[in-house]
Specification:
It is a single chain. The protein contains 5 helices and 4 strands; from the N terminus they run E-H-H-E-H-E-H-E-H. It has 153 residues and is α+β, with helices and mostly antiparallel strands. The longest helix is centred in the middle third of the chain and has 21 residues.
Length: 153
């Protein structure tokens, strides 16, 4: 909860996905996957069916935007993004495995409605939390010096 929040809007909320509802949601995702693409390979449909079955708890972070507020919508979204990152780091600091994912379900209007996401809201991430089965592989990171420049006026 300790993230930048200009205007004290609390422009986000959480939706917990746990237990058997994860599997029921997976069934809905598989059904929707077939609706979106009747020719989708069975492996892709099965991936969607299992999408929420690996971690015991998934916290959905949902941005609650207040249009035409003095705090621009981009800052409201960034506050929600900071919540996602803080939740991810907090889970990992407590010894859990955690992963921040989105994918097509975060943006699909049918799935958004199923999740209870209203018109002024956006799914910012599904934070999957559980026990890591293996250590996440390290990947190549950019050199920070290549990303930093000095303002010259």
């Amino acid at each position: 909860m300790r993230v930048p929040d200009h205007g004290k809007l609390t422009p986000w909320r959480f939706l917990k996905i746990e237990g058997d509802v994860r599997l029921r949601l997976g069934a809905k995702l598989a059904e929707r996957s077939r609706e979106r693409d009747p020719n989708a390979p069975e492996a892709a449909v099965e991936k969607d069916r299992l999408r929420f079955s690996f971690a015991p708890t998934i916290i959905t972070v949902i941005a609650r935007l207040t249009p035409e507020h003095k705090v621009p919508e981009i800052e409201q979204l960034l506050s929600g993004g900071a919540v996602c990152f803080a939740l991810l780091m907090a889970a990992q600091a407590e010894g859990f495995g955690a992963q921040w994912l989105t994918g097509w379900p975060a943006y699909d209007p049918v799935i958004r409605q199923l999740l209870g996401v209203s018109e002024n809201e956006r799914v910012l991430g599904f934070i999957h939390i559980g026990t890591a089965r293996e250590q996440a592989p390290e990947r190549t990171r950019p050199d920070p010096n290549d990303l930093l420049s000095d303002l010259r006026l």
